[in-house]
Each structure stands twice: as C-alpha cells, then as structure tokens.
C-alpha cells in the first residue's frame, strides 16, 4: 500500500516539470505555432502523469476511471483547440517563425 | 486573520475595482466586464461568509443564492451585449461625429 | 501555513487579473483575461467548499460568458464599415476629454467617494465574526423532509424554490428581450469550420448530453443539478453552432419556443398546484418532494440550455443556410 502511494506521489511530482516547461515555452517561444507546441505537448504529458499519480491514490476504481476519463477528454479538447488556433493563425497569414529569417 | 476574512476582503476589493472601472471607463463592453467583476466580488463575500460555519459544513443558503446570481449575471450580460450591438455609432451623448 | 499562502496567492491572482482585464487596451485580450478570471473564481469556489458554485462558474461564468463576449466582439468587428469604425461604441469613446477642468474635479470627487466606499466595505468585512453558522443548522434539521440529500439543491428547489422560479423567469425574460430587439448580424458564416472541429463536435456532443443528464441526476445527492447540467448542454449547443452542424437550425420555431418556456411553465404549474393543495407556494409533501424536484429540474435543464444557446446566437438560429458539409471543403 505504501509503495503504491509513494509511486502516486512520485508520478504527480514527475508531472510538475512538464507544466513548468510548458509555461516557460508559452512565455518565451517566438511565435504562436511554437507556443502551441509547448503548451499542448507538455501539458498533455504533465497532466497525464498527475492524473496517473492521483488515480493510484484514488479510493475506488470508479474514481480512478473518472480521473482517466478527464485526461482523455482534455487530450481531445486541447488537440482540437490547438488545431483551431493554428488554423486561424494560418488563415490570417501569420508565417511560422524561421531561424534563418531572423 | 482567518481564511474567510481574507476572501471577504478580496471580494470587497473586486467590488470596488469593478465599481471604479464601471464609472470611469468609456468603452461600453468594458463597462459590461466591470459589472461582471463587481458581481464576482459580491459572490466572493457571500461564499466566504458561508465558509465561516464552525461545523465545517458551509452554509448552503448563500451557495444557492450565488448559483442564482451567476445565472442572472449571464442573462444581464447577454441582454447588455445585444443592446450594445444594436447601438448606432455616434449616437451616445458626447460621442464625436 | 501552506494553506494560507495558497489562499493569499489565489486572492492576489484574482485581484491582479481583474486589474489587468479592466485596464487592458485590447478588448480581445480583456475578454481572454475575463475567461481566465472566471477559471480562477472556480478554483476559489472549490477552495471554499462550494463545489456546486464551482461547477456553475466554470461552465457559465467562464465558458459561456466568454463565448458570448467573444461572439459579440466578433459581430461588432465585422458589422461596421471596417475595423476603424466599429459599431456599438466598442472603440474608446470620446465622451471624456482629458484636461477639462470640470472633468478633473468630477474625477477626483469620484475617486474620493470610491475610496470611502472601499473603506466602509473593508471595515464591514473586518468586523464580521470569524465564525458564524448562518442557516446551516436550520437547513440540516429539515433535510429529511426536502426529498434530496444535497443541501444546495434542497435550498434551490425546496426551501427557497420561489427564488429559483423567478430566476428561470429572468432567463426567459432576457431571451424575450433579446429576440424582440430583432436579428443580429451573424458572424458564423465567415469561414467554414475545419474537419477537425466537426469531427470533435460529433464525437463530443453525445457525451456532453450524457454528462448533462448525469449532473441533473447527481444533483439530488452530490454537487450538480439543473444549472450545471444545463450549462454543459448549452456548451454542446454552442459547439454544434460553431461546427456548423445544422441540427439546431432544423428545429421548428414553435418547438424551440415551447422548449424555451417549458422550464418556467412546469415550475409555475407545480407551484400553483401546491398553492391549491396546501395554501403555500412550492410546499411539497415530504414523500413526493424528490419526484417533484426531479420533474422541475428536468424541465428547467432543457429550458436553461436552450435559452443560453439562443442568447449566444442572438435570439434565433439562422435559417436557410447551407450546412458546411454541402459547401466546398476548404483545405
């Protein structure tokens, strides 16, 4: 029991750096496409680890299943939102950032 | 200072900020946002007040009032936005031609 | 100690966000900040043991309000002659000319008044007793007779059912006002939605209907209820509109009107039946209370969801448009 709880805490902690990296990317990356990349990729994996960690500590398997369901829904929603933002940016004629042009 | 007092003071500050913006900002959409911020301040005071219950179970009556308030606030916002959309540019007193 | 630090962080973030959103020059930025502000409010509600309010805030206060505001900004941006001359006074008005003497005096007076108001309110909040049970005991003592076990639902639909009746009336009234103002310029026709959004909507809408039903059912014993469920259903409706799936547009006008009024009508009918039977409005017999509440909430859920979607689309669903799948696919 102790091992499972410790693993849960470890997984939650392991998720934190991904949020940090995602936020840093959002603040520091040069254009909308790279920022989206930082946000969606990092947050999905970070949230996945946090959810796994919480699911291990959940009181019942139903609660764990609900947590996993939340993760799947966030994955779907964030991928779609990312696509829509990028598509809209492309339609407005925003050019992806390119190192050579800078 | 207890947690409830902290949140109540936060609510008071939100209400005051909203009031100030409502009275001084000229953009109408911003005034709608300001009214919403004022509302959030009031809700915060109510819910923080409910949190003071010594039994640990918060008072459900303010919770129900705030739920009602959130729905009334969105009705108000929606109507205000449509009225805004119906306004003819330049018809406000003081607007330039 | 850590809890208190978290509380302070939350309160300061809220105030900072409110300041930013009220001061931001760009209106689009202000609205996005308002959505984030709503999400932080939801966090605060969760922190203050108000999960019912947190659910409603996340769905209505942040999600649907944000959608409404963005739709309105979009309309005003596209309906005018161009971005320079926006309709509806969204651009900074010129009513106040800085530097005029009367204005400065008014402005100073106003600042003094507001500081006075803030001082009074801070004092009033400060002298409140740190512990107060309010009406918790009265509600707990009567929970057995309310027909549900979630105290917030008991207050909303039994003890203070009158308030909720009037609230659904307010929602209906807002819709009637919006509709009577005539058709708004549509903004959805600008660009066909992508395949991804359409597929996502098709996948998610049935699931959202299920969640709405679950929230309605769970409201009797856990956080949830007609408002939270209705907000989720309304979000599904907004998605259907944005993805240009003509499901809502194909509903006959009469049916839409009937459904929008259904919640208020059912609520009013039940209330008058109770008035006839017991001489008091919404005074259910304890044995049947649960069933009456479920009936009212089910009707209210449909009306709340439909009214919120209609408010989003400007009072009406536009008819006679070509659904996206019959148009030329773009990329």
Descriptive account of the structure:
The complex is a heterotrimer of chains A (102), B (97) and C (331). Chain A has 102 residues and is an all-alpha fold. In chain A, helix 1 packs antiparallel against helix 2. Chain A has one domain. Chain A contains 3 helices and no strands. The model of chain A has no long low-confidence stretch (mean pLDDT 87). Chain A starts with a helix and ends in an 11-residue tail after the last helix. Chain B is mainly α and 97 residues long. Chain B has a single domain (3-86), classed as Helix Hairpins (Orthogonal Bundle), CATH 1.10.287. Chain B contains 3 helices and no strands. The mean pLDDT of chain B is 88. Chain C has 2 domains: 1-80; 149-319, no CATH class. Chain C contains 11 helices and no strands. Chain C has helices spanning 2-23, 27-47, 51-79, 101-126, 136-142, 151-159, 161-180, 195-218, 226-242, 253-278, 289-312. Chain C has 331 residues and is mainly α. The interface between A and C is small, with 7 and 7 residues.
Key phrases:
heterotrimer, B: 97 residues, mainly alpha, Helix Hairpins, elongated, C: mainly alpha, 2 domains, 68% helix
Oligomeric state: heterotrimer
Quote the average pLDDT of chain C: 84
Uncertain segments of chain B: none
Rounded average pLDDT of chain B: 88
| Extended strand count of chain B | 0
CATH topology of chain B: Helix Hairpins
Count the DSSP helices of chain C: 11
The DSSP helix count of chain B reads 3
How many distinct beta strands of chain C? 0
List the helices and strands and how they pair.
The complex is a heterotrimer of chains A (102), B (97) and C (331).
Chain A: H1 2-28, H2 32-57, H3 61-91
Chain B: H1 3-24, H2 28-50, H3 60-86
Chain C: H1 2-23, H2 27-47, H3 51-79, H4 101-126, H5 136-142, H6 151-159, H7 161-180, H8 195-218, H9 226-242, H10 253-278, H11 289-312
Helix pairs in contact in C: 1-2, 2-3, 3-9, 6-7, 7-10, 7-11, 8-9, 9-11, 10-11
